[in-house]
Amino acid sequence: MKNFQYFKPKSLKEASEILSKHKGKAHILNGGTDLIIRMRDRIIEPEVVVDIKEIDELNSIHLNKHGELIIGACVNLNDIAHNKIVDENYDFLSKAAHMVGSSQVRNRATMVGNICNASPLADTATPLLALDAKVLVYGAEGKKEISIHDFFIWVRKTCLKIGEIVIGIKIPSYSNDILGDFQKISRRKMVDLSTVCGTVLKNGDDIRIALGAVSPTPIRLRKTEGFIKGKELTEEVIKKALEVAVSEISPIDDIRASKEYRINMTKVIIKRGLKKIRQKNLALAEG
Amino acid sequence: MKYKINFNLNNEEIEHYIDPNRTLLNMIREDFDLTGAKEGCGAGECGACTVLLDGKPVNACLVLAIEVEGKDILTVEGLSPGNKLDELQISFIENAALQCGYCTPGMVMTAKALLKENNNPTEEEVKEALSGNLCRCTGYKKIIKAVMDIVEKGKH
Ligand SMILES: Cc1cc2nc3c(=O)[nH]c(=O)nc-3n(C[C@H](O)[C@H](O)[C@H](O)COP(=O)(O)OP(=O)(O)OC[C@H]3O[C@@H](n4cnc5c(N)ncnc54)[C@H](O)[C@@H]3O)c2cc1C
Ligand code: FES
Ligand code: FES
Questions:
Q1: What CATH number corresponds to the domain at position A114?
Q2: Residue A15's domain spans which residues?
């Protein structure tokens, strides 16, 4: 690993100033589970590393006064997975956090690092896409919110500009009970990267589908959602929905799986998710 | 440039000067001769380098030494005072839960952290907690048994 200058600022302002001053030569260090490996392998050789973990306001999970859930940038994935508010309201988000790496990795890795890394297979991205989460950002012009739908640009590329720091993730407050299903298909049951991962979510009559590892960024399947909208989830509708879903994805062959396998697993994830929702609808109808 | 850091290592307060590009694993092995934690993969995959950082298991190969400023580090060498072995270490020996021993310090530290958080884990929970620790020799059964023996005897 090449040597570098290390800063551990106590405020966002200070952190942003250091990042701006050193332009593209400075990198943000959060849990380090992606960054340190990339530095070790000399894929990146930052001159300056800015450790943001001492900035107090980045270290909490709480509901704000509007009932929106705020997950601070430096909260690690184990603390998110075990958080009561997260688990009671969005158990599928807890599950996604829990499915990242090993317990040792999750004691360091963060959800914000997971999305900033912008891997197509980032496990926590699909529940956030399905929840219409907002990414809270601090930059030279102050604070702003970016929709998670505008955040991912390409493989390993987000819309963040130099000097910008993600402060946290905001989950809107929902008046309905949300039913969500996160699934991860991987070669090994634990401590493996997703071959395909996805979230199927029901909010009232609205059904949302998000998938990872089937295109350059994690995506929402808007056409499939549109096709399902207002329809009863019969076998026939589910079958057609899967065809629409396949037309919306562009998976590749890689070391983990072939394109064909990813297409098949896409169908499996969506079918299981929709069937879970259908069961819930039946249970509601029976009162 | 070296930076000054203060931290607690196996219950001893330490002041140390370090280059930022050194990992925690590299520092404890090279500067403190604590060679229990091993480098298997150097990439967070194998758990052979597991130590406790403020009581939680982490891969020391994925932490920069400079990040431990103000924190507590416990390595396998600090698990028990003096020459006495910790009950988990004894259970690993009694159950023959090691062959080459390369994975053992990491296994023991991960198991220790689990038992501190949950003194009555199920076998499933033990397996899950240890899923980030690879062993190329034993086939895991005896390792799980070594941990479950402690749970069953309710010794801790
Ligand atoms: C053994 C192992 C297993 C893994 N398994 C999985 C898995 O199953 N699923 C999965 O999705 N990932 C997995 N990962 C990848 C990784 O752990 C996750 O992506 C993790 O969530 C990254 O978070 P971090 O806090 O460690 O990020 P860091 O490594 O600190 O940062 C990642 C990137 O995001 C940037 N960044 C971090 N925080 C901010 C911020 N607040 N503002 C702006 N930019 C920021 C950094 O500059 C860096 O470029 C694994 C990694 C390892 C080593
Ligand atoms: S050496 Fe650290 S996890 Fe393998
Ligand atoms: S005993 Fe050899 S790797 Fe586990």
A1: 3.30.465.10
A2: 5-51
The average confidence (pLDDT) of chain A is 96
What global pTM score does this model have? 0.97
CB contact under 8 A, B132 and A3: no
Does A128 share its domain with A143? yes
Model confidence pLDDT, tens digit, residues A219-271: 999 999 999 999 999 999 999 999 999 999 999 999 899 999 999 999 999 99
Q: What is the mean pLDDT of residues B51-75?
A: 98
- What are chain B's domains? 3-75 (3.10.20.30), 87-153 (1.10.150.120)
Token output for A232 = 């009863």
Q: Indicate whether A158 and A128 sit together in one domain.
A: yes
Query: Domain ends where: A171, A194, A217?
Result: A171
What is the per-residue pLDDT for B155? 52
Write the pLDDT tens digit of every residue in B6-34. Answer: 999 999 999 999 999 999 999 999 999 99
Top mutation candidate among B23, B35, B41 for ligand 2, by most atoms within 8 Å of CB: B41
Task: Characterize the bridge pairing of strands A142-147 and A152-154.
Answer: unpaired
Whether A169 is in the pocket of ligand 1, judged by its Cβ within 6 Å, is no
Query: Would you say B45 and B82 are in contact if contact means Cβ atoms under 8 Å apart?
Result: no
Neighbours of A77 (CB within 10 A): 28
Contact call for A32 and B67, based on CB within 8 A = yes
d(CA A74, CA B140): 34
Percentage of the residues of chain B whose pLDDT score is greater than 70:
99
A–B interface: beta-carbon pairs under 8 A: 79
Q: Which of A99, A102, A190 to mutate: most B Cβ within 10 Å?
A: A102
The number of domains in chain A is: 3
Inter-chain CB proximity B59 and A53 less than 8 Å: no
List the residue whose alpha carbon is closest to atom 46 of ligand 1: A28
- Here the tokens at position A162 are 């130099």
Same domain (yes/no): A191, A262: yes
Give dist(CA A235, CA A213) in Å, integer: 26
